TrEMBL record:
Protein name (Swiss-Prot/TrEMBL): Replication restart protein PriA
Matching InterPro entries: DEAD/DEAH_box_helicase_dom, Helicase_ATP-bd, Helicase_C-like, P-loop_NTPase, PriA, PriA_3primeBD, PriA_3primeBD_sf, PriA_C
Superkingdom field: Bacteria
GO molecular function annotations of the record: 3'-5' DNA helicase activity; ATP binding; DNA binding; hydrolase activity; zinc ion binding
Catalytic activity of the protein: Couples ATP hydrolysis with the unwinding of duplex DNA by translocating in the 3'-5' direction; ATP + H2O = ADP + phosphate + H(+)
Length: 716
């Protein structure tokens, strides 16, 4: 037998990271422990790293003991180490993302309850009888008892004093388990084949599979079968969604399929709900979790499958704090746990598609819509030939199509990926423009709230009546459309129609949004004016027409990924039309009907588009053919930021590693800080992290300078 180690490493969930302590009996890697740090006691996790043997025994402080009853599994520990290394973040900062719900480490105290003591009451009154009857089936909390019996507090207290009731603790009822066979679907032959392939992968170790299928082909239906297989094998499943707004829909489908509401993990949940779910995941009582990016860091007890839905979605990239791509890290998490990961999309990212084509990923395809429905008929509306009236945004062909749709009793979606009323406000007399004081961005008018808002930092100010620069009265003019402005036009054109705006800043918060989505799904809305929030995932049965107000939006900026993004967005949003009933159609308002993206959309030729994109990436030395990283330097003063970035450029690595820049970052000023960016590029076989680490270490950060490394940046 090997003797117990005398010292061990403990990873603390912050930048201090790994420290060495004297071991305590029975404490093992993965255990959550309390350790002394200075004059305090802090919580950390026993880590696999060998302890520091150079510290003198006398200086070594002992582990105080275990905290709670949950251990962090070896696969999750390896994942933390990987993410730390890959994103060049101290591992403690990653561990903090795991220990998100510290209260969940210890079992919750059972609730106080009241029960019958067995002593009969001396006097029997109506209310007393009701209390006794309510408790006949077992103990209840005081609150539940008052509700169930309708009796007053005084009656209950009286019975307690008389010894008829006694205090007890409520035995915990385990949550109901999902049933893999609760409501099995009738799959089409193509769905069946894909589902069989996925089921065969569950339990057979790590693999990555791209589940590609046009919008409405039933990908969700197929991956639900993979989840059923995981459940049947006694394993847990994680479904990652790019946006919180999409979780209720998946949750509803999972509930229907398996008869139990899955756990939801995202920032919209209360701390209490998160604590409960974290613990249920760790103890294996939560079988299915639907979550945002951060759900990757949950301590699954027996993970069996990960699904990344809408894998191409840019929202999977976390740009704040630890910069990571949740789809990429999901693959790593699956690898460490030795389980399959399913990437689902109608419009996979170029990276994922290439991996599927090269055979690194398995590739499952659903070629047609479920039930043989055709994809919507997509046409471009050339705004140069048929422009809208001045100061308005809907062209004659779109107006006609909406009118026809209304007449047929169907639903129309007008899509514009711009929140608010107008993206820019200008004084007609002096040309004054409203800029964010903290960012290099225009303030967006939100007319409903009467405010000008920065969409980057949240700065808000009231919209003045008088120009602050020239004092002109009623000279301020909105420029360009946002969804609120399109709504105004819709109400003027079709006053009888029931119209609604759906965007993330809907008054009333997440619940209002869920309610509004329900009304749209039930057909209680005729015209939806929506941002990207409604572009993906949803099935609105009556929706037959999608009109894209500005299909060029996003194509103008210089980012090589812009074309791919726009293609994905347009495919997603047009794919909302005709999902249940035949005859769906889509119109794209554009000034550039010959742009490759618009042409690919109209022809329905995604293959040609991907082929062209792939060539462009290869010839341009872009991912996935080359590796990229960005170093973002920010500081309170522009000169300070520039000087630091320039110093980095002077000491940049050479040879096969290229450093481009510094250039102003895509948002040159953000939250009051000036930002420069250096782009690092290298051939695929070169790992960038060690090179970056050496380079950056030689140029220390001083003054107000801050540096962030973005591995695999989303914009190049
Ligand atoms: P995707 O995820 O590919 O966009 P969904 O799984 O959401 O597609 O399916 C689109 C629509 O078709 C949904 O309303 C879904 O309920 C329905 N559907 C798909 N497959 C089936 C099936 N086998 N049986 C019944 N309805 C199905
Ligand atoms: Zn701002």
């Amino acid at each position: 037998m090997t003797p117990e180690p005398e010292r061990l490493s403990v990873l603390l969930p912050h930048r201090l990271g790994l420290l060495t302590y004297r071991a305590a009996e029975g404490v093992r890697p993965g255990d959550v422990v309390a350790v002394p740090l200075g004059g305090r006691t802090v919580v950390g996790v026993v880590w696999d790293e060998p302890p520091d043997e150079t510290i003198a025994d006398a200086r070594l402080r002992p582990v105080a003991g275990r905290v709670g009853d949950i251990a962090i599994g070896a696969d999750l520990r390896r994942f933390v180490d990987f993410v730390a290394h890959y994103t060049m973040t101290p591992p403690g900062a990653i561990l903090r993302m795991v220990l998100r719900a510290p209260d969940a480490l210890v079992p919750p105290k059972p609730l106080k309850a009241l029960a019958l003591s067995g002593t009969a009451p001396e006097r029997s009154t109506g209310p007393r009888e009701k209390v006794l009857a309510a408790l006949a089936d077992g103990p209840l909390t005081r609150k539940a008892l008052l509700e169930a019996s309708g009796a007053s507090t005084a009656v209950v207290t009286g019975l307690l004093k008389a010894g008829v009731l006694e205090e007890t603790r409520l035995a915990e009822v385990p949550p109901p388990r999902p049933d893999p066979q609760h409501r099995p679907p009738h799959l089409s032959p193509a769905q069946e084949d894909a589902a069989d392939a996925l089921k065969a992968m569950v339990g057979a170790g790590f693999s990555t599979v791209l589940l590609e299928g046009v919008t409405g082909s039933g990908k969700t239906e197929v991956y639900l079968e993979a989840i059923a297989a995981a459940l049947a094998a006694g394993r847990q499943a994680l479904v990652l969604m790019p946006e919180i707004a999409l979780t209720p829909m998946v949750t509803a489908r999972l509930s229907e399929r398996f008869g139990v509401v899955p756990g939801e993990w995202h920032s919209g949940r209360t701390p209490a709900a998160r604590t409960a779910l974290w613990r249920d995941v760790a103890t294996g009582r939560a079988d299915i979790v639907v979550g945002a990016r951060s759900a990757l860091f949950l301590p699954f007890d027996r993970l069996g499958l990960i699904v990344v839905d809408e894998e191409h979605d840019p929202s999977f990239k976390q740009e704040d704090g630890v910069i990571y791509h949740a789809r990429d890290m999901a693959i790593v998490r699956a690898k460490e746990a030795d389980v399959p990961v399913v990437l689902a999309s109608a419009t996979p990212s170029v990276e994922t598609r290439l991996n599927a084509e090269s055979g690194r990923y398995r590739h499952l395809m659903l070629g047609t819509r479920h039930g043989g429905l055709a994809l919507p008929d997509i046409r471009a509306v050339d705004l140069r030939a048929t422009p809208p009236p001045r100061g308005e945004w809907l062209s004659p062909p779109v107006r006609q199509a909406v009118a026809d749709t209304l007449k047929a009793g169907e639903q129309a979606l007008l899509f514009l990926n711009r929140r608010g009323y107008a993206p820019l406000t200008v004084c007609r007399r002096c040309g004054h423009r409203f800029h964010c004081p903290n960012c290099s961005a225009s303030l967006v008018e939100h007319r409903l709230r009467g405010r000008l808002v920065c969409h980057h930092c949240g700065h808000e100010e009231p919209r003045p009546r008088v120009c602050p620069s020239c004092g002109g009265e009623d000279t301020l003019a909105p420029c360009g459309p946002g969804v609120e402005r399109v709504e105004e036009e819709v109400r003027a054109l079709w006053p009888e129609a029931r119209a609604t705006v759906l965007s993330s800043d809907l008054a009333g918060g997440p619940q209002a949004l869920v309610d509004a989505l329900g009304r749209v799904a039930r057909g209680e809305v005729d015209i939806v004016i929506g941002t990207q929030l409604v572009a993906k995932g949803y099935t609105f049965p009556r929706l037959q027409l999608v009109a894209v107000v500005d299909a060029d939006l996003g194509l103008e900026n210089g980012d090589p990924r812009a074309a791919e993004r726009t293609f994905q967005m347009l495919t997603q949003v047009t794919g909302r039309a005709g999902r249940v009933t035949a005859g769906g159609r889509a119109l794209l308002q554009t000034h550039a009907p010959d742009h490759p993206v618009i042409r690919a959309m109209v022809r329905g030729d995604g293959e040609a588009f991907y082929a062209e994109e792939t060539l462009m990436r290869r010839d341009g030395g872009l991912p996935p053919f080359h590796r990229l990283a960005a170093v973002i330097v920010s500081a309170a003063e522009k000169a300070e930021a520039h000087a630091h970035a320039a110093a980095l450029a002077r000491t940049a690595p050479t040879g096969e590693v290229e450093v481009l820049g510094p250039a102003e970052a895509p948002l040159a000023v953000l939250r009051g800080r000036y930002r420069y960016r250096l782009l690092v590029r290298a051939p695929r076989r070169i790992m960038l992290q060690p090179i970056l680490a050496d380079w950056l270490a030689a140029v220390p950060v001083e003054g107000t300078v801050r540096r962030a490394v973005d591995i695999d940046p989303q914009s190049f």
